[in-house]
Amino acid sequence: MSDRIKIKEILTSGKADYEATVKGWVRTFRNNQFIALNDGSTINTLQVVVDRDNLPESELKRITTGAAISATGQVVASQGGGQSVEIQATDIKIIGDADPQKYPLQPKKHSLEFLREISHLRFRTNTFGAIFRIRHSVAFAIHQFFNERGFVYLHTPIITGSDAEGAGEMFQVTTLDLNDVPKTEDNEVDFKKDFFKKPTNLTVSGQLEAELGALALSDVYTFGPTFRAENSNTSRHLAEFWMIEPEVAFADLNDNMDLAEDLLQYVINYCLDKHDEDLKFLESRLLKEESQKPQKDRSDMALREKLKFCVDNKFERVTYTEAINILKNSKPNKKKKFQFVIEDWGADLQSEHERYLVEKHFKKPVILVDYPKEIKAFYMRMNEDNKTVRAMDILFPGIGEIVGGSQREERLEVLESKMKEFDVPIEEMQWFLDTRRFGTCEHAGFGLGFERLVLFITGMTNIRDVIPFPRYPGNAEI
Ligand code: 4AD
Ligand code: MG
User: Fold this and answer.
1) Which atom from ligand 1 is nearest to the alpha carbon of 401?
2) Are 373 and 388 in contact, with CB atoms under 8 Å apart?
3) Cα(447) to centroid of ligand 1, in Å?
4) Could you give phi then psi for residue 209, rounded to 5 degrees?
């Protein structure tokens, strides 16, 4: 190991007059003398001043955008503006060349679409550096939040035999030879010959397993990858995304809402605190992007202002019934501007409706509760009215649904009859029903879409840009 110092440390300490070695990738090389070096520890570059007289021409030529280099020299107060200190290099080593004829990331503005095509290199841009540093902090802050509150991090399975959401949008897992599928006498697939001797799939949610944990450990959460084979080519959907799912015993829907609101505010606050420079950069990126749009599609607030607003204000809590009334009487509904016009109570809300409520009507995050039972999952607790369930969705500006959760149906008979109604295979789910058979209790939980939260915090507009290796219909690069 060398005595390499990270650029972030050099720049934040601002100290001068000591010798240091830095390593990183050249962003630009100006006047054959000034290197802007970045090592990913910060969005900022360190200026490395080259001692031209003592570096052979052949080496100078190798200092090109994208090359990996090491530089050693005195850290001194900088003469030029823009940085407090710079390094006067006495020794420069080229660690890895980047042929300027072939390296695709030259120092100019590249579109996000272009960068998506070279997703293996996009980490090296300012935008993606900022996004992935923030993504890390969001994950870290989530674990810290739950740890401080005594939650147990429970790893639920990635390969499972159940369909938690009952939505059937699953990726199958098999070791059977698809060119020669073994069949039973009834000409059905013979899963007895498959690895697990039964049909399996990638998990769509760890909730049902988390419930088993909560009814013993009290407070648990999962944080893992989930998979949905829904054919949604939108800027909000991924086929592989990460989800945080807390599950809490002896808790009702109000406790659930409080927990979700606390979690979101805690994480946003953490990022505001730790990532001012990255957020400042992303904020100006967003401003530039929005300046191309018509006035009505621009945000009212700049990125950091919007994040602060979310931290400082209580989320609006509204019932589905109230929301439907607001939507029915709204201008876009009356003028039939919505793609799906709201006619009656019972309609499922589309993203256009959610965004109207958040962005135009309430102008702040909204928690919608008490949805019609028909449009929500089988495990949600039935209300006294026998029409609605104790569901909650949290809606965020620019995002729509960021959290989906509920108080769970803890009464065995009610749950069983709901499962029948929803065609959920009761026989196969006795393990789940056992929690209701033995020591059942009121409990609640929710699922927070990790990438949707990162999307919100970074002010990006496409979910494919906030996960390192996005998977969506037709794409599983790398
Ligand atoms: O609303 P969902 O489907 O809820 C569940 O899966 C419950 N089992 C959660 C629970 O109560 N434990 O998904 C939860 C969240 C959504 O609100 C959304 O933020 C995110 O997961 N999500 C997606 N994110 C990216 N791509 C997709 N295809 C997503 N589907 C859901
Ligand atoms: Mg949902």
Assistant:
1) 17
2) yes
3) 6
4) -70, -40
Residue of the nearest CA to atom 14 in ligand 1? Answer: 447
Q: Would you say the CB of residue 401 lies under 6 angstroms from ligand 1?
A: yes
Distance CA 391, CA 379 (A): 10
Per-residue model confidence as pLDDT tens digits over 401-427: 999 999 999 999 999 999 999 999 999
333's tokens? 């509904």
Distances (CA, A) of 207 to 216, 245, 262, 443: 15, 7, 20, 12
pLDDT digits (tens, 9 = 90+) for 131-141: 999 999 999 99
Q: Is the separation of the CB atoms in 48 and 34 below 8 Å?
A: yes
The count of residues in the chain is 478
Position 2 confidence tier, pLDDT thresholds 50, 70, 90: low
What pLDDT, in 10s, does the model give residues 97-125? 999 999 999 888 899 999 999 989 999 99
Task: Write the CA distances from 455 to 56, 431, 469, integer angstroms.
Answer: 46, 36, 15
Residue 66 contacts by C-beta under 8 Å, 6 or more apart in sequence?
25, 26, 98, 100, 103, 105, 124
Token pair in block for residue 381: 């607790």
Q: Is 172 left (phi over 0), alpha (psi -120 to 50) or beta?
A: beta
Nearest residue to 358 (alpha-carbon basis) of 273, 288, 440, 456: 456
- Give pTM, 2 decimals: 0.96
